[in-house]
Amino acid sequence: MVHCLSGKYWWPTLAKDVRVYVSSCSVCAQCKAPRHLPRGKLQPLPVPQRPWSHLLVDFLTDLPPSQGNTTILVVVDHFSKSCRLLPLPGLPTALQTAEALFTHVFRHYGVPEDIVSDRVPQFKSRVWKAFKERLGVSVSLTSGFHPESNGQVERVNQDVGRFLRSYYQDRPGEWAAFVPWAEMAQNSLRHFSTNLSPFQCVLGYQSVLAPWHQSQTEAPAVDDWFRRAEETWNAAHVHLQRAVLRQKVAADRHRSEAPVFAPGDRVWLSARNLPLRLPCRKLVPRFVGPFKVLRRVNEVCYRLQLPPDY
């Protein structure tokens, strides 16, 4: 546009005025594809101070029936990377999910401080809200269409799926019998972030995978065991912080700084994941709005005032 106008007109702020005019065009804002890097730097989850204080939860669904089970509840400890795999008859209700977590996780490791999960109905219901309030547990729901927020449990899902797939070819319908072995194998492997296996990080020693004969020496004192466990946790905490920094540096190479908005500002909303009821998906606007910003949730997330029909 600057080139076209320069052939016939000139004024001192021509380029600046054209830039402001084009950037404020609502049709262009809705229909043009963005050419910049994805907005917002990586915001890693905080590193916990001890094992099993911050949990990551997800479901592995649509599995073939095996011993009456078609779903696996996957629970991962954010500190030690330890996992619990709980086969279930189907996608559980909020009450069944709470009972499974209490029976198989909380009673062994204590009540956690925070649970990260996807926005599934089980973790948004009134039953789950009452359950977490009674126990004093905070629940962090991930952003929609953003699996990176719960990336640790998504990676465990991939590993467990690969493990079960290896046995399913020869023994279809028997994957439920191999879930305990998959859990033990996953917890026995050294994790890149902590430089320890989950067993070492939680228990202070590596689990025995082969026959082992105890030596004739006396068992170590309880104080010595706690000292070694604390040293292990401190080492794991240092490795976790370094791993988070490495992951953030690698991710931020492909991202740009997030724009800063204040409550009351009006912004455009990407229509990529919105089920707009239009006859041709190919030609729908790339952005809709503008909508009013209600509050800033964190460094990269905002809550918008959307129409009731959204």
Automatic annotation (TrEMBL):
Coiled-coil intervals, chain numbering: none
Magnesium recorded as keyword: yes
Organism: Salmo trutta
Domain Integrase catalytic, chain residue ranges per copy: 47-206
Pfam families assigned to the protein according to its UniProt record, in alphabetical order: Integrase_H2C2, rve, SH3_Tf2-1
Entry keyword set: Aspartyl protease, DNA integration, DNA recombination, DNA-binding, DNA-directed DNA polymerase, Hydrolase, Magnesium, Metal-binding, Nucleotidyltransferase, Protease, RNA-directed DNA polymerase, Transferase
Superkingdom: Eukaryota
Taxonomic path: Eukaryota, Metazoa, Chordata, Craniata, Vertebrata
Annotated GO MF terms: aspartic-type endopeptidase activity; DNA binding; DNA-directed DNA polymerase activity; metal ion binding; RNA-directed DNA polymerase activity
GO BP of this protein: DNA integration; DNA recombination; proteolysis
Protein name: Gypsy retrotransposon integrase-like protein 1
